[in-house]
Structures are given as C-alpha cells and as structure tokens.
Write a structure and sequence with these properties.
- This protein has 245 residues and is an alpha/beta fold.
- 27% of the residues lie in helices and 29% in strands.
- The chain has one domain: Rossmann fold (3-Layer(aba) Sandwich), CATH 3.40.50.
- The longest helix has 14 residues.
- It is globular, with a radius of gyration of 19 Å.
- The termini are far apart.
- The protein binds zinc ion (ZN).
Length: 245
C-alpha cells in the first residue's frame, strides 16, 4: 500500500466562483477522487489552513508520496514546514509537484534554481507528447495526451537538467515545454508535471489520473533506508580493515 498525501493551498476555490464551480471539493478533493479507484493507494488530503499546513512530523513520517498544488500562497507556507518536507524527501519520501507549484518554496529548494517559465492564459490547445515510451509514468497514457484548452507554459523553464524527461508539450502558439520531469534528490524521487491550471477541469480527466497514479508508484521508494550514508571518516568499513591486514 502506498500512502499518498494530496496538499493544496485551497485559496482559488474559496475566493473565485469559476474555480469553485469546477472544483467544489477543492483541487485536492478532485485529485483524491481521481486516485480513489486505485486499490494500492491510500489517499489523504491537507491544506494550507490546517495546523502546520497539515504537514506535521507525524503526518510526513506516515506519507510515502506527497502531491503539491499551490499558486497564490507560496509565500505563506512556513519555512520550518518547507524544511521538514525537504528533509523527508531527502530521506526517501516521493514528491509530485503540479502546475504552478513550480514556484513553491519546496520545489525551488530542491531544484536550486529560480524555476521561472514563460506563460499565457489564452485557451491554447496543449499536446503532451511522451518522450520516454518505456518509462513507468507513461504506462496506459494516451500518446499524445491532448488538453483542448489550457494555460500555456513555455521554455525557457529554469530548472536543472532533469534526470529523466518524460513529457514534452507543445501549444497553439507554437511554444514547447518540458511538462514531465523526473529528479532524484537524496533518497527521494521528485516528479514535476505541468498540467493543472485552476480554471480548466484538468483534474477530472481519467488520463491525467493515470499519469498521477503512475507517478505516485514511481515516486514511492520502497526501501529508502537500505543503503545508509556514512558520515564519519573515522569509521572504516570491514572490507577496508581486511584490505589493510
Ligand atoms: Zn496556472
């Protein structure tokens, strides 16, 4: 069983009638519903307004994969909570960052770059092309996956070169974007997936749910503590002692 926590700032939904009409139970509620049919996943949700943003030490320690959606309130996420999440990723917790989460504190901390990109809200058609056909995240995903209307995200996207590039999107305006990127940080796996603007019903689509379910399984490192990192140069391994004898 993979323990998933879906985190959402949950602000557009409370302030904007158009967004609330699309996501009456919040973006987090829609993502949880998308994943609910997967029998190997147990899904919880948390939001910015929860105590410690719902990201307490105990909650994170019982989470295998965290999904993150944020936009308006990146600056309101407490730095101590960000540090706690970052430490858990380095210990082996998976992290899936969606759409405008590219500017979240946690994603920028893990990337070490500005994570800026080009964008435009103009009802572009987005065509999401698979560029890693043998990758587990694309299993059962339409190739290409077409979003009839979406916000444009375009290059240059200021991220480190991904360890694995899974999806590349193109848009009506001609722009291209690295829309599915895998990174390894410490013992943890990070996936950035760009679809999910709040005024389009992206998180009601079964094909998007397929991507997210695949990404959760990929990001769940089953044995994160199998190889411990030595921190003391004065602690020789047994093979070293034998080699010297
Ligand atoms: Zn957006």
């Amino acid at each position: 069983m993979t323990r998933v926590l879906v985190w959402n700032e949950d602000i557009h939904e409370t302030k904007n009638d158009e967004v609330r009409a699309i996501y009456p139970k919040g973006i987090h509620g829609a993502i949880a519903a998308l994943l609910s049919s997967q029998s190997d996943l147990s899904v919880r949700t948390a939001t910015l307004a929860d105590p410690e943003h719902g990201l307490t030490k105990d909650t994170l320690e019982s989470t295998d994969v965290l999904i993150w959606w944020g936009h308006l309130a990146h600056h309101l996420v407490d730095d101590a909570v960000v540090a706690r999440v970052q430490a858990r990723v380095l210990q082996g917790m998976g992290l899936i960052v969606l759409h405008s989460g590219h500017l979240s504190k946690i994603f920028r901390a893990l990337m070490g770059t500005t994570c800026n990109l080009r964008w435009r809200e103009a009802d572009d058609r987005e065509v999401i092309w698979t560029v890693a056909p043998d990758h587990p995240i694309v299993a059962g995903v339409p190739q290409p996956l077409v979003l009839p209307r979406h916000e444009m995200y375009g290059e240059f996207f200021d991220i480190p070169t991904p360890d694995e590039l899974v999806f590349v999107s193109n848009f009506t305006g001609g722009e291209v974007f690295r829309s599915g990127c895998c990174f390894k940080r410490g013992k943890g796996r990070v996936f950035y997936f760009s679809p999910g603007h709040e005024t389009y019903p992206i998180f009601h689509r079964a094909d998007i749910g397929q991507v997210l379910a695949n990404a959760v399984r990929w990001a769940h490192v089953q044995t994160p503590h199998a190889v411990e990192t030595r921190t003391s140069p004065n602690a020789p391994t047994n093979w070293f002692i034998k080699a010297e004898a």
